[in-house]
Amino acid sequence: MSLLQEERKIILNNEYVDSFDFAEVSEFVKNASKDLFISHHFKNKNKMLVQPRGGFPTYKKQFALNEFFVKANVDVLPLTIDSNTRLNDYATAKKMLRLSEENDVDMLNGYPLVNHGYRTTRKMITHFNKPVSLRHGTPDARLLIETAIASGIFEIEGGPITYLLPYSKNFPLDKAFLYWKYVERVCANYSKLNEPINRESFGPLTATLVPPAITIVIQLLEMLLSLEEGVKSFSVSFSQTGSMNQDIVTGAVIKKLAKYYAEQINCGDAAINLVYHQWMGAFPTNKDYAEQLINMSTVIASMVGADKIITKTREEASGIPTKEANAKTVANTQYTLGILNGLPNIVDEEEEEMLTLQVKAIMEAVFNDPADTLWRKVFNSIKNGIIDVPFSPHIINHNNMITIRDAKKNIRIIKRGNVPIPDRCYAYEKAQCDLTKDTTSIVNDIIHDIGIMQ
Hints:
Blueprint (H helix, E strand, L loop, with lengths): L2 H10 L9 H10 L6 H7 L4 E3 L7 H13 L5 E4 L2 H4 L3 H14 L9 H4 L1 H11 L3 E4 L6 H10 L3 E3 L15 H19 L6 E3 L11 H16 L5 E7 L4 H21 L6 E7 L9 H18 L3 E3 L12 H18 L8 H19 L6 H10 L18 E4 L5 E5 L7 H9 L7 H12 L4
Helix pairs in contact: 4-8, 4-14, 8-9, 9-10, 11-12, 11-15, 12-15, 13-14
């Protein structure tokens, strides 16, 4: 028995898990409908795929949400996991699920997949026969993804950096790398049985003034960590920055460099797709403005040539969206995409050159770290501040990089910390901003820039 298989047996020997039948699950994946694999849809698509967010604690409510989505012409169904499961607290999730079912009140902020188990969840997923995307935010997702794939969920979001630095304060980063290595291997193994399991990185990060160079570097590194374990279908992603020009440039650079770096490690045969998140920052409370923002995001997604768009709702600022609001956004986004039918993409060449130079300089610094494996090089680079995510709560993150918006709403780096932004690019970034103001005014500008869409 391989070491991985031994580890899998230990992980699945958990009191909250139904008995896990490896042979039955492999047989199920082997014979599963192609329609359940987003990798199959990416290969054969003639339009951008639309995916909302959404997760309810009970099977009944999740099923009803999916029904609404299907009526609204959804392409990809979401399954958002509750925060107890994210923290591997299956005991509390079990209690809260029972209370949710008994009182018909949502006591969890998502679907507790591990507690429902794969046999139950699979009935729902095969019933709708649409690809499902697992959205979860879990640093240790080993048990969760085993249950997900056994349920028929063949797209797994997240990664050791993107699901840790924005969400966690002190979960050990080195452990996260090792836990995600397990995830990649399991996904790679199952990918040999049918269509590939798709892995998707989480591009928005903290969704707060993250400069495109940092977003792209982290996307590329999570992609490489995944491909080196044998994953054959990977989605890089980023979210709306607040500047249409910057989004278009980011889309062009991330596509080009994803292909370039995949080829550098002899993984040019892997399918790389691009996912665009509608605005992930603070939403306007005015629902009409929220709708305009959502439509604008859809136009930009079309301009960057995204393969999939992840939608928001007009109720975003006022709490957890209803299934009706969620379905409405899907229908509206599909309608807008139908009108657009693709758009010409004119990329700002100077911005593209500057961004490419920044990304390549940071990537080179990561690769030059003396550690013997890629994950250790990345770990050291975060620890040394070579990769620095603005507004990350995690203790390992330096938070020395300072960003602000220029007059055209582009996110600019005005203090680079230890991030090896080339001098020429750094001078260019700062030249776009008015830095003659006093410190208090600059801090006030940053606060304003965080709530730019409100």
